[in-house]
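Question:
When you can, review this sequence-structure pair and walk me through the tokens.
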Amino acid sequence: MLKAPTYLKASYCANCNLTMQNRTDCRGRCSAVNLLINNTHPNIQGLNGCLNSLCTRGYDSLPYADADVIGIGVFASYIMQCMFVVIIWFGLAAFYLYKQRHPVRYSQHQSQPLSQPEKSTTTDPHASHSQPPQPAVQRKGHQAVFVDFLVQFHKAQCYFSSTLQIASLSYGIFDTDMLVTFSLIPIATNGVLPVVFAFVLLFYHNRSTMDITILTVCTWALASLVYWILYSHVVPINQDFTGDGERYRAYQQFMYKLTALDACGGYSALAVCPRNFELGKRDISGASHNLRAMTPIIWSFSSICLVAILLGKVIKWRRGRPRKSSSGQSKYRQVKSGSDAEAETDAEADVHTSSETIQTPNPPLFRTHRAASIAYWITTICFLAGIGMQLSLLSIGTSLNMMDRSNWSFGQIVAVTIWAEPLLGYLYDEVKELLWSRFNIGNVPK
């Protein structure tokens, strides 16, 4: 019994220091000196004052969530991932509109050589045969540089998202924990929607190579696994979300987990507050509704688009397989007339040029460029709407005051600088392109 006041003092002090976002009262009302008269007698007035401070300070009485999951730097990195995809889409749209309005000027910029072919100056007649002149180096063009940036950014976001999903699998997602559920579901969908959106852009611009395809599918699979594990915890809790009892239960689980302390036996000392579960009840109810309603739409739409692209790549591969006749030539070419064969050769040359200059080719699922463009614009506009929904899910951490905006620790800075590599690479390539177009300096090293 003599140790009971000491344990009580330790519990209140630990609760204050570990939960309160504003710890000013921890040095006053909830200080150890104010909670005890001596080693055997607690200060009842001091305990009541500390408890009143904990129960009436609102969000300041609650702790921040795990900074590794919802820190300011990590949160900024999630937002940057979505915004980069949107910016890239607008950039590609601007190139498309410029090409439609100025086709002649666009083709001239794309075909202008970076350097002239080197002429042989030797008088030896045999030297020209052994050392042919070097062909002219073609400029990449601003659009090609921009699409290269898209490729590098997509790789960076796939590695970033995959790492987050692997870490989530070891974060206790198999237990029903509303705090973990609210924190990690937006991260899981952030590994699906922006990744598939960027992959759609790469596919349309003929840059979805096999390595990028495998990386995208693996990232989507990991994010989907984490998402459905977490979503299975949300649905049973809110099967009848129209009832006040279910709202209270979801809110109670979230608040208990957020303020649970080892000093209180794994429970929250805020449970003694008479109106503890009124704070932020509407915000948490709205966040739970968004998780249940929006995330299935985001995952389903992204997954359907990914499957459609994979089918399109299979069709493109099958159409590109050669069909040889008994003489070793393509049957398809044998039945062509002279003019048709010439037109076909021009079309193939155009496709080859588009793959080099990153012009927009026709996706294999469509016979006409008009149908491909319509499908592309409709799909990407839907993705933009999905990005808006995803940003609203990411804002759950800020709406519930779970984030310390001033805690720029080592890990938070690392999380933001993950996007520096593709961005700096794009700026360097763009500077090289500007040096050539403005100052005719084309020998800048890669």
About this structure: The longest helix spans residues 281-319. The two ends are 76 Å apart (CA to CA). DSSP finds 19 helices and two strands in the chain. The CA atoms of residues 197 and 251 lie 33 Å apart.
